[in-house]
């Protein structure tokens, strides 16, 4: 089913997984994770495309497993930046063959050795969206509660978010954030710009202070001082840290739901155990309000 159609009827709970770097063993592991995620009744599961150096080739295979073997809706990420039209055509053909109906159309992370050859054909996510417009997919776009790192102002970024909606994005999924105020500001400013689509908050439990630098570098998300303090005080106790990180994510989710978020997208880092811990704490909330 189209995710925008689901969103018209209910709040969505979704998880994000990423393909293993390589190997059948890695694939079997992710299939096993997806099997476990079914228990938490997600409305869809998204699969990243090449993020963090992950293997691009297995993106369609994993999306197909989600949709055709496990019976959960799949949202396949697709990045235009590094791709030619031939690359995109071939992925789109495979997605169509596997009955995948939803694509999160992105530009993609710029590689470290960025040069002008990168983003030759699809400079921005909107270029990919325009290219896919006549294909029969529901398109989604990414958005950034604290603004995208390449934009000087949130307003500039919002103009491009509006362009994504005009190019066919039917809903948005946000970058990770740890201070809900950024999400509320994004939604409020987006509505003022006339953006009408659902904006689904993306939550990633932060379970170790070691992850703070990568969160800041990769996602640009700031960590509130209180939360950072909790992580640092207990930095040598992994069990306590996980507990604090999960509880903080649960607090964020409850606040988001109470203030009307249209769904929750959980970045679970391929760990079904994280999804389970959050689900168990919120089972009643999910069954009543989703
Ligand atoms: P764009 O929309 O192209 O935006 C990039 C920058 O350019 C922004 O600053 C934007 O404001 C600006 N911009 C946009 N349009 C224009 C224009 N016409 N003129 C001038 N400036 C413009 N990366 C991966 O590699 N694989 C993944 O699977 C993946 N999944 C993600 C999922 C989510 C929910 C999110 C939030 C991010 C994901 N990313 C992924 C990371 C993403 O690719 C990076 O954040 C990337 O830097 C920007 O992608 P975008 O689609 O938002 O690009």
SSE topology:
Layout: H1 3-9, E1 12-17, H2 24-37, E2 44-47, H3 58-69, E3 73-79, H4 85-97, E4 102-106, H5 125-132, E5 138-143, H6 154-166, E6 169-176, H7 180-192, E7 198-203, H8 212-219, H9 225-233, H10 238-258, E8 263-267, H11 272-289
Parallel strand pairs: 1-2, 1-8, 2-3, 3-4, 4-5, 5-6, 6-7, 7-8
Helix pairs in contact: 2-3, 10-11
Quick synopsis:
This protein has a single domain, classed as TIM Barrel, CATH 3.20.20.220. It is 47% helix and 16% strand.
In words, what does this structure look like?
The longest helix has 21 residues, at 238-258. The protein is α/β, with parallel strands linked by helices and 290 residues long. It is globular. The protein has one domain: Alpha-Beta Barrel (TIM Barrel), CATH 3.20.20. Strands 1-2-3-4-5-6-7-8 form an 8-stranded parallel beta barrel, surrounded by 6 helices. The chain has helices spanning 3-9, 24-37, 58-69, 85-97, 125-132, 154-166, 180-192, 212-219, 225-233, 238-258, 272-289, and strands at residues 12-17, 44-47, 73-79, 102-106, 138-143, 169-176, 198-203, 263-267. The model has no long low-confidence stretch (mean pLDDT 93). Flavin-adenine dinucleotide binds next to strand 3, strand 4, helix 5, helix 6 and strand 6. The site of flavin-adenine dinucleotide (FAD) has 23 residues, from strand 3, strand 4, helix 5, helix 6 and strand 6.
